[in-house]
């Protein structure tokens, strides 16, 4: 989770840090009623398990003086050439420099396993763990997972270390008291308290966002520090804040312990994360999509594309299926399916409940390992050019048969067939839904279409059935597909 990433859609800055104290007045406002009398007993048990993580990295210096552009034959040409050659030699000697950074972490085994954030140790040449008693030990990177911003380190202590255990983050409730120990601004071990403000937060930092939100302050240098419950169990790993300035405004986020534990276990065992994969591309089910699919209220994850020879394909999933349950867990939205599939053990067989044509069906599926890279496209024979005819005007769009000329013009892959959108009228529902020239309508009402005539016929059938909107499956030239609904009137 890189700091200040431009891909964050939040209007304010996401600064990477961890939990620190809020004033008593702030705590009272956030959680009316009396707080804990003291956390001293709990703190005394866990304080020595929290460490300061320091790193060192060699980077290239960007210093340099631009060479002035002189006309050929200038009397100053030789002088400046000699001067800047000497200056360049000096810069080469000082080209590299050492930079350091600070973060937090915590010991989970007496023999020296330490959890922290990936962004704390990313690109570091050297990593050290600094303990409360002044001990400084060099740490080895066991493994890391950028998608959840977690990393596992190992030190070799002379004697067993104080370690802490993970708790059950699923039982946390909004308003529960939590405690953090970290290293804000490099000040050293600091303990703070606050309450849980919200759960299951998505801050668009990655595909598996499921953060605990706390009203306690989080500041720089506390990244990777633990969030404790009042029993001294780690229920979160502090990771990010929302802030316009980089300092805390009382909105901080922690990776839940129940998300972190399987990741840490895999890093310890494999030195990498092996996530589950079923081979589908999914999209949210909106209210209008739910109506078109006949599933009642909006819920689940809508299957758009199924990867060839994937677990989903072998299990019989189809484009247009709505996955509502996976391995006994309800899928209320797309993020639920993304997380539960990723957390499922590779080669495990699970039941998948889908809604197809308005009815529930249960399919059996064997989860595979998520591929490291996208599979290469397979070559397929090119279709013959469609008969050249005038575009059909349907639903505020011009639709043309697929042709070799249109494939070249819009860079449409050979395996994609359907009716090509060549124009979208401004201000129409199609325009509002983001449809544009170069996309291809491949299904109407969950039936395959190969031409504008097919689209026209299928729209007519939907009108006869009394449908108010049409469900279209639309592909771009690269094969990325999505469902959209357009009104039929």
Automatic annotation (TrEMBL):
EC class, as a word, reads hydrolase
Q: Which Gene3D superfamilies match?
A: 2.30.42.10, 2.40.10.120
Question: Highest taxon of the source?
Answer: Bacteria
Q: Please list the residue ranges annotated as the PDZ domain.
A: 267-361, 383-477
- Chief localisation class: periplasm
Quote the Pfam families the UniProt record gives: PDZ_2, PDZ_6, Trypsin_2
- Amino acid composition bias (Basic and acidic residues), ranges on this chain: 369-382
Q: Which residues form the signal peptide?
A: 1-27
Query: What biological processes does GO assign it?
Result: proteolysis
Kindly give the InterPro entries that the UniProt entry links to this protein.
Answer: PDZ, PDZ_6, PDZ_sf, Pept_S1C_Do, Peptidase_S1_PA, Peptidase_S1C
Which catalysed reactions does the entry list for this protein? Answer: Acts on substrates that are at least partially unfolded. The cleavage site P1 residue is normally between a pair of hydrophobic residues, such as Val-|-Val
Q: Where is this region: Disordered?
A: 369-388
Q: Which SUPFAM superfamilies match?
A: PDZ domain-like, Trypsin-like serine proteases
> Any one cellular component term from GO for this entry?
periplasmic space
- The active site consists of 119 (charge relay system), 149 (charge relay system), 223 (charge relay system)
Q: Which GO terms describe its molecular function?
A: serine-type endopeptidase activity
Q: Which Enzyme Commission number(s) are on file for it?
A: 3.4.21.107
Keyword annotations from UniProtKB, A to Z:
Hydrolase, Periplasm, Protease, Repeat, Serine protease, Signal, Stress response
Instruction: Kindly list the places in or outside the cell where this protein is found, as annotated in its UniProt entry.
Output: Periplasm
Positions contributing to substrate binding: 119, 149, 221-223
Family the entry assigns: Belongs to the peptidase S1C family.
Protein name (record): Probable periplasmic serine endoprotease DegP-like
Task: Give the species this sequence originates from.
Answer: Xanthobacter tagetidis
């Amino acid at each position: 989770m890189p700091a200040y990433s431009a891909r964050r859609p939040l209007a304010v800055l996401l600064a990477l840090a961890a939990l620190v104290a809020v004033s008593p007045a702030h705590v009272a406002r956030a959680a009316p009623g009396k707080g804990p009398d003291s956390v001293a007993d709990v703190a005394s048990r866990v304080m020595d398990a929290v460490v300061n993580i320091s790193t060192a990295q060699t980077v290239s210096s960007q210093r340099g003086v631009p060479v002035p552009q002189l006309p050929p034959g200038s009397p100053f040409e030789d002088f400046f050439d000699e001067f800047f050659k000497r200056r360049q030699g000096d810069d080469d000697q000082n080209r590299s420099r050492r930079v350091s950074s600070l973060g937090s972490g915590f010991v989970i085994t007496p023999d020296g396993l330490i959890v922290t954030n990936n962004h704390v140790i990313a690109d570091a040449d050297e990593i050290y763990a600094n303990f409360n008693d002044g001990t400084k030990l060099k740490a080895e990177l066991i493994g890391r997972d950028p998608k959840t911003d977690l990393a596992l380190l190992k030190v070799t202590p002379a004697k067993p270390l104080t370690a802490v255990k993970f708790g059950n983050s699923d039982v946390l409730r909004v308003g529960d008291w939590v405690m953090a120990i970290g290293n804000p601004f490099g000040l050293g071990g600091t303990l703070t308290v606050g309450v849980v403000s919200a759960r299951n937060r998505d801050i668009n930092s990655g595909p598996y966002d499921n953060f605990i939100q706390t009203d306690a302050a989080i500041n720089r240098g506390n990244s990777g520090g633990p969030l404790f419950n009042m029993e001294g169990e780690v229920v979160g790993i502090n990771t990010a804040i929302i802030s316009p300035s980089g300092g805390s405004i009382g909105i901080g986020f922690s990776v839940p312990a129940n998300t972190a534990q399987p990741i840490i276990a895999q890093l310890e065992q494999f030195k990498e994360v092996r996530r589950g994969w079923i081979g589908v591309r999914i999209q949210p089910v909106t209210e209008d999509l739910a109506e078109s699919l006949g599933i009642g209220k909006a819920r689940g994850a809508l299957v758009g594309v199924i990867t060839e020879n994937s677990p989903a394909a072998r299990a019989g999933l189809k484009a247009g299926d709505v996955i509502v349950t996976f391995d006994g867990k309800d899928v209320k939205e797309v993020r639920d399916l993304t997380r539960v599939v990723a957390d499922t053990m590779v080669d495990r067989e699970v039941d998948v409940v889908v809604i197809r044509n308005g009815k529930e069906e249960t399919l059996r599926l064997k989860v595979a390992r998520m591929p490291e890279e996208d599979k290469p496209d397979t070559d397929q024979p090119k279709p013959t050019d469609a008969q050249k005819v005038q575009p059909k005007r349907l639903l505020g769009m011009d639709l043309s048969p697929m042709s070799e000329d249109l494939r070249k013009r819009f860079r449409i892959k050979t395996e994609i067939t359907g009716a090509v959108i060549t124009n979208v009228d401004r201000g129409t529902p199609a325009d509002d839904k983001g449809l544009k020239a170069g996309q291809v309508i491949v299904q109407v009402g969950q039936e395959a279409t190969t031409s504008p005539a097919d689209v026209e016929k299928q729209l007519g059938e939907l009108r006869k059935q009394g449908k108010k909107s049409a469900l279209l499956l639309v592909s771009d030239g690269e094969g990325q597909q999505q469902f959209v609904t357009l009104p039929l009137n």
